[in-house]
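ugh ok so i messed up the first submission bc i forgot one of the chains. this is the corrected input, ALL of the components this time, i swear. 591 residues overall. if the numbers dont match what u have on ur side tell me asap before i send this to the collaborators (the ones from the other lab, u know who)
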Amino acid sequence: MSATWLARKLTVVAGLAWLVATIVFLALHMVPGDPAELLLSTGGVSPDPASVAELREKLGLERPLFAQYAAFIGGLLRGDLGTSLIDDYPVISEIALRLPRTLELIAAGSVIAILIGVPAGVFAALDRGGAFDRAASAVTALLLAVPVFVLGTLLVLLFAQTLRIMPAGGFVPFAQDPVQHLKLLILPAIAIAKGLAAVLFRMTRAAMLDALANDYVRTARAKGLSPTRVIIVHVLRNALNPVVTVLGLQMGTLLGGTVLVEYVFNWPGMSTPLLRAVEGRDYPMVVGIVLTISVLFLLLNLVVELVHAWLDPRVAHS
Amino acid sequence: MSGNRHLKRLWLPGGFVALIALAALCAPLFPLPDPIRQDVANRLAGPMAGSWLGRDEFGRDVLSRLLWGARTSLSVAFASALTAGAIGVLLGLIGGWGKGAAAFLSVRSMDIVLCFPPILLALLVVTLLGPGAATLILVLSVLYLPGFARVTHAEVLAVKSRDYVEATRALGARPAYLLLRTVLPNIAGPILVQLSLAVAAAVVLESGLSFLGLGVVPPAPSWGLMIRGARATMEQAPLLLVWPCAALTLTILAMNLLCDGLRDALDPRTAGR
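and heres the new structure output, hopefully the right one now
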């Protein structure tokens, strides 16, 4: 992959990130009426004018729109996302504390999904129409249907409430107690993994079936290569391209699912302050977190594209 | 013959979805207790006469709440999918048929929605407008707009130079007539598939937001809210958690199978796979 290709991709990501920032900035001003009054009104009751004036002051709503926008973008470039309306805590500090925990959950979920979805897809393709293939396909249809928070809740009901072999949720820093940390990570990671594993399974199976039908597979077999070598070196490598593409398409679902799963398992990632902020109409905090996760979404998609280009050099040249 | 086989696959999931829709529509007709009437004396009561599935943490009838919950979920999902469909198809028609910047922007400007993970865009709007069914419908419509615009755009491009379109144009048909009476019926299949996908996705997202307490406002019955409520009492009454989970999962399963079946039957590109 060439440097110009990479530079072009990075420019696109930067442009999209700017677009996303502009949208979240404008969202507050796109709603008819006074934004401060909007954020303070609950259930049709007009807020008291003094607190509206105070909030207008705090959000800098008195200044011209363009000046507000310039200040917002300038703040972003300096890594300043403003402060919470509830407790004046800097939004960036909250994110710095929470983001690693959310990333850990996403990483653990993706690893589980890849370790289960891809091999299961390979075996199902090799066993086309057989018992394993049919059973795995049925399980996949069920996994795609069960919403992530339902699966999470049922996992708690089964493993924590009924069997009492796993903790129901919570968080312990890794440095403090590694074993408990991992124990608390397993169930939420499985819940996060479910959708991705199901989609990876389907895609791997389909791509393997396509790849198996190719002439080079027949040639490789005819040369007397061992079946395992044919599968891994010749079939799987070519089947992985569409699988990686799907991985990229699933990132939005994965990040969205994290919000729900963290809530179900009391995992103190980005979801805790986000939901508190949505409930408390804490606009700067919501904007900061939505922006962070959306940029993360764009970056993860870029990483997927890089892996794709590495697997299939044609991508970077097209 | 393959058409027949495709149609057969539609019967079971289609029938199930129709059954749920019918139950949701007829919920007021069943002789069931009021889904929001509380009866603290029968808090978490097991199955009893007139309450086959028992009562929830406020003594409300669970079966009644399940049926009325279907009504909430499906009405929000259909309202938002139809709104997204109407506007998205219009934008797609403009984008596919027209020329210049307006046509380009009508489809590509929708793509900005795709830069956000869906639930986060929803939470942003809930912060601004407050939770409730109206907010949900607005958010979900916006989220599914790009899908409709893209599919319609691609399909219009594919059919606009076909002979039957050229022939109708040569007969002197005005553009509006041509688009609505000639082009639209011929691209209805993929749009219908998109509609079924949007409804299924909307049911999932609505239940998720309600589960977080940021969708449908209590005490209105919703499957997401029922799961949220039953979580607190799962120790005493685990079944309370199981019913709405099962209802939601089975509904989405049937809808997904219906989507797959519709796609195989209506979308020529994936037929035969």
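quick check: The mean pLDDT of chain B is 85. that seems consistent at least. Residues 226 and 249 of chain B are 14 Å apart (CA to CA).
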